[in-house]
Specification:
Jelly Rolls; 16 strands; about 5% helix; mainly beta; 8-stranded mixed β-sheet; about 260 residues; 1 helix
Amino acid sequence: MSSWSACTYNFDATQVQINAANVNGGRQVKLMPSINLIDQKGIGFIEYLNGVAIDQIVASSKGFLNTDFNKPYIDKKVITEGILASEFVFDVSNLQNINLGNSKEIQQFFGQVIGSSSSKIEIQLDIGYSIVNNNSDYSNGEYITLTAVSTKFDTNNEVIVKDVDRKVHQVNTPSLGKVIFGIYLNQTSKQFGYMINGVNYGYLNINMQNPVNNMGYTLGLQQTPNPNSKFIGKQVSMQLITDSTKMTQTYPIGTKDICGNTI
């Protein structure tokens, strides 16, 4: 891949594809009302969960063609050597100066990363960013929750869980209202590392069996369960950064973007 071209990812999934997936059951989704393909950003407005939960997402059309967990995941081809990175930006600047008082709030945003070899899906990382207020389960504040799973084949050649790791971090949202979550995948050691707002937390306690050659991403926004939430109607955005020239975090020396351009 050319080191002179921008490294992009295409959030081109259609509502028709999403509707077809919704028929299969599970948590229902719809496209975010505004999607900027150039900036790889989805913009949505927080809604009330009135009955059936419907998440707002951005995703790739290729990603929706992958329906069998036992088969390789085909989406964005990536380099298969060295360390490769990408970033998520959760922009909640419109929520920062709201006086929540005693309002019960648990507003959640999410991202998902899937990495696949030619044999199978090797890893799945689910990222949750939550804003919590007056909730009995958590102290007031913002949280990043990670759940990572690597896979292996069982004796029947079915894909099963190999390793699982889960992390929860309470974070401080910077004054600009953007939380930046960076990931870096080491194709040599087959490990997955991450950082939040410039703090490197190192590798998760999981190992892949094989380097990945395809990756897929999804970003999303959940509804609020509180009909009186002070967040309802507020605009938020989620962005994926895959190009080396746009990344802001400091990665291990020699790290490249998923296309092979040195950061």
